[in-house]
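Open question from group meeting: does this chain pack into something compact, or does most of it stay loose? Before anyone orders reagents, we agreed to write out a predicted structure and look at it together. Recording both the input and the output here so the notebook holds the full record.
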Amino acid sequence: MPMKRLLTILCLPALLLLGAAEVRSADLEKGADAYESGDYAAALLEFGPLAEEGYDIAQFYLGQMYYEGEGVVQDYVQAVAWYRKSAEQGYDNAQTLLGVMYQLGQGVAQDYVQAVAWYHKAAERGHPVAQSRLGSTYFYGQGVAQDYAQAAVWYHKAAKQVDDAVAQSRLGFMYKMGHGVVQDYAQAAVWFRKAAEQGDAPSQGLLGFMYVGGQGVAQDYAQAAAWFRKAAEQGHAVAQSQLGQMYYEGQGVAQDYAQAAVWYHKAAQQGDALSQGPLGNMYFHGQGVAQDYTQAAVWFRKAAEQGHANAQALLGIMYSKGQGVVQDYVQAAVWLRKSAEQGYAAAQYNLGLTYYKGLGKAQDYAQAAGWFRKAAEQEYADAQFILGIMYQLGQGVIKDDVQAYMWYNLAAAQGDEDAAKHRDKLAEKMTPGQVAEAQRLASRWTEKHRK
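Structure tokens returned:
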């Protein structure tokens, strides 16, 4: 949080009520008035002597002027020095900002332990910003052992005093996940809403997800879209992606591929892989944008390079077919393998095809069968069908009509008519016992994989 924002929360004019017992109030008031009006030279004339005399409020103001470079040359070291003088007298605003300086390593060596120490002093005095930042140190384990329960305690203290969006948002997250508190979606939604209504984009997005999932609130896609839009309009990439998806699917909004492409594009330009892939798909199919295989390949590549399995598979297929890129079976295999190794069934099947047909490499039925099997085990019908062919012909596996029938039967059960025809034709050459065994194996496989 920027120092100026912290000072807004601290409410500088109220500082005059909290100073040393025998402070020259008139001089402090003159200095404060000058500071607030932007007359930093006049403020310095008032605060300088008072700070030297040991008045904590004046020392605090002087530290702030050095921090911001207001009326003096910006100097974090001097800022720390004056904050420290004020903080050591017990002034909680100075203690809080000295903690910030240690946390950020401004004017001092970064030291989370010292930051926690100063936050703790101010937090114990009831300072809401210090309480919120102390909660964050426990939340992330900076300068203290990570302790979600302690984080929740301090966030609660801060949130009860002021509308601190950080504390409210973190409390929402902690209630959603059950970190440091009993999991409670309704409470999570309450805290997310408090932060969201202050314009906190991450909380707006998270509240949108609560409405999508009906967690702590009644499921309401229109409300989800409304909150995603608020966050998206602030540039929040995840919310932009979700809003794009809602326009694509027509959830909570009228289906509109053009709007889906707009929001996916905004998120994709920020590097969001979950938007880059769908945006590539829209260019591939010409949904909401003119069909453009080159652009599709561009966006698939961006997502693929971030490890997005679906995009890797689609980029591999585009290389295999020469769509939007120069046909290159070697590159096709590279991207298909990356996806296949993540367990993506479509990639496993297509990688199997490169081995089966010898595309860009020596034909290898054994390798093909291995990849087809991985996809078939995930109920990928095309892989089950071709694995049946390989068992029937003995390609890369030992010829086995029972296994062939089983795989044909599994693919046929998913609506593959060619598999059904191959199964029925094969059955004509099999004994009733073999058919019964193949059917038993198919039933057992289905029972195992549908649990």
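Observations to bring back to the group:
Residues 381-451 form one domain.
The two ends are 49 Å apart (CA to CA).
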